[in-house]
Amino acid sequence: MNTVTRPRILVVGAGFAGVECVRRLERKLSPDEADVTLVTPFAYQLYLPLLPQVASGVLTPQSIAVSLRRSKKYRTRIIPGGAIGVDLKSKVCVVRTITDEIVNEPYDYIVLAPGSITRTFDIPGLTDHAFGMKTLAEAAYIRDHVISQLDLADASQDPVERASRLQFVVVGGGYAGTETAACLQRLTHAAVKRYPRLDPSLIKWHLIDIAPKLMPELGDKLGSSAQEILRRRGIEISLGTSIAKAGPEEVTFTDGRVIPTRTLIWTAGVVASPLIATLGAETVKGRLAVASEMNLPGEDGVFALGDSAAVPDLAKGDGAMCPPTAQHALRQGRHVADNVIASLRGQVLKPYVHKDLGLVVDLGGTDAVSKPLGIELRGLPAQAVARGYHWSALRTNVAKTRVMTNWLLNAVAGDDFVRTGFQARKAARLKDFEYSDAYLTPEQVREQVEGPRPQ
Ligand SMILES: Cc1cc2nc3c(=O)[nH]c(=O)nc-3n(C[C@H](O)[C@H](O)[C@H](O)COP(=O)(O)OP(=O)(O)OC[C@H]3O[C@@H](n4cnc5c(N)ncnc54)[C@H](O)[C@@H]3O)c2cc1C
């Protein structure tokens, strides 16, 4: 068959949503029906919910980086790079490859699943001094950074420097921030035993959030249990509080307290990938406003899903949109593939409906709180549900085996607290990890697609 006549389906992003979509397209479409292309900067699908366990060293980075090329059945063409703009009119996606070449990729159908980036605010010093928890590189970097604070504090003769190196601030009391603070506190608590010259009482973790509660989705009782666990471990929780100013050696809270610290981890929410703004289409809080079938109204062959799209939550109703969770993203991925196939074959598209299954929060060790299907669990049963859920959601058997082996090894042998130093000399700002400044403006996209205007 002539390849030119085959419709071209372009999927942007190899996360929960993108990979589920691609795998389903590969299964359900015959090779003659369409060409499938995936744009992704990395050669893996990242299992983000287990990122705090990479930061704390319970899991190795590779164990949650699930290969995109595991099977010979995978026939999708993969472009190694990031989409930096989409021109809806001419149906072209502009891609910057990993070698910094700019290429125009034409499509007939586009599925936008580039996820989200860390949401920041206009707080002095924030983007220069905070670390995020959204990429594998950030998790590995933070682990090295935290261990290096112990190393440097141990070597220092200056009590002021020691104190600032041994205080750590996490902003954001959602599940990502809470798990990050809990897992990293366990890391420093265990590691300090290998530093006989350090006074363990100097190590202090702060978890702060502007909201009045941690993880409000858990409900009052379970939320209080999570707080109780963290407080018992010595994590200081400050609610109704945020950051007024961040510097290299101290952070000022909005309640006036100045905390000497070299570690500010910012997990105060996410915002849709900047790719969405390049479309110049309607958005809801930055997410692309799509119909419940996940297509963009008024545009032929444009779909969006996951963290980057405002997909109506029909199970909740009342104009709600689906929360940015992996639970929704991967189900939307399968569903959008069916809808792309339906539009390719001239069939009717179906709306996406999914009732939330609940939440699992792994606080490290045997500490956890979970609310599967509305049932409140604490301690070991909650931990078994949390780990069982994540383990079964990993896409390949190899990834499952790696994660299980890591968990067992960590439970039996603990951590060696090795600082790799791989990224020690690299810039460590949010935008360096998340490439948030790599995108074009809608005008630049048009110019790139149409070529320079004649003088
Ligand atoms: C620390 C943490 C813990 C979490 N815990 C949970 C949990 O317990 N349960 C839960 O349901 N959810 C959890 N989430 C949220 C969940 O991970 C996200 O909602 C989910 O990953 C969204 O899926 P997605 O496919 O939309 O985006 P992602 O999974 O983020 O995938 C987006 C992909 O697109 C790629 N990409 C980005 N920009 C571009 C571009 N311009 N061009 C091409 N590719 C691009 C990225 O590299 C990535 O591979 C957690 C998130 C974090 C950060």
UniProtKB/TrEMBL annotation:
Residues 8-333 form the FAD/NAD(P)-binding domain. Transmembrane segments: none annotated. The keyword Hydrolase does not apply. Keywords: FAD, Flavoprotein, NAD, Oxidoreductase. Gene3D superfamilies: 3.50.50.100. Pfam families: Pyr_redox_2 (PF07992). InterPro entries: FAD/NAD-bd_sf (IPR036188), FAD/NAD-binding_dom (IPR023753), NDH-2 (IPR045024). It comes from the Bacteria. Belongs to the NADH dehydrogenase family. This is NAD(P)/FAD-dependent oxidoreductase. It comes from Streptomyces massasporeus.
